[in-house]
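Collaborator request, handled under Task 6.
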Amino acid sequence: MKAIYLDHAATTPIHPKVAEVMTESLQANFGNPSSVHSFGRKARQVLDKARAVAAASISATEKDIVFTSGGTEADNMAITGVALANQTKGKHIITTKIEHHATLHTVENLEKQGFEATYLDVNEDGAIDINQLKSALRDDTILVTVMMVNNETGVIQPIAEIGQLLEEHKAYFHTDAVQAYGMLPIDVNELKVDLLTVSSHKINGPKGLGFLYVDPNVSLQALQHGGEQERKRRPGTENVAAIAGFTEAIKLGQAERVDRYSKYQGFRDQFLQILREQEVTFSINGEDAERVPNIVNVSFPGTNVEALLTNFDLSGVAASSGSACTAGSVEPSHVLSAMFTENSSCTTNSIRFSFGLANDEENVSAAAEKIGQIVKRLAK
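Structure tokens returned to the collaborator:
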């Protein structure tokens, strides 16, 4: 039995071309990019190229890109870095109740240090109300951080509208674009965002790597201390081989973005259609909202997450109950609790299916048939 992977929102398989580039770079570019000799300069060229490719993918400039150990570090750097650097101007931060824990826990930690936070609600489709954000803005608001695409539901937030709203306000605007990058076109100038987070392993690149876009006008305090790498914003010798792989993943993702969008939309529609043909009772969380095609969050009445995931896994299908960071937790999803109520059955009977490189029409159909059989058996 060959296992079927439907959890690309948690992490993606590395693209063969990415692995090839990384393997070559490990052998050819072992020099320290900060060294002035030829080995160092050769490694530095890899970094310079990577920064240019990353910047171009979001219509930024090279000097605005900071390589990090991943999305979590980038979120931490953006939120805490801005808060500490601008606390004399105010200590109020606005975020949402459905952010990834990399954002929520960072904001909660700042609250322990004397900062004040407002957590925006979402409606039953998982989208924020721009008017609530407008009402929450204060003179001492220094940062607004709202994710572009929710990692559990795939719901897209009104980032361009938020950017427009904040254009006349002193608050910086950060967006976690981890689930959006590679699926949606992103132009930081059009969106009017000041900081933006990207993760490599969500786009078929290596784990332990990401980048933070920082507008040159942003006042940001470094959170680590050491050398002068990344323009003194993130010290430490860069992981050149992984960055070379990340660069290849970005290039592939940008070249294939439109095709992938269409392909994953087809997988999602095919998957749901088979469930309907099997007369499985289900509903889609956030169905009426604008969503990315590769993530669908499905509620199966009369079931529970633990039994579903266990049985899916035993049948060779990998899915998730939400964020990979809370895998194994029996607590209701904080995202679905914000969309509905903490007592809603949707918070404990919903599964996230996410499509990507490991899928084709054949294994998506096979997975849907297995899932339909399991759900009907468990719901009896």
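The cover message to the collaborator said: "Residues 30 and 77 are 27 Å apart (CA to CA). Residues 240-277 form the longest helix (38 residues). Please let us know whether this matches your experimental observations."
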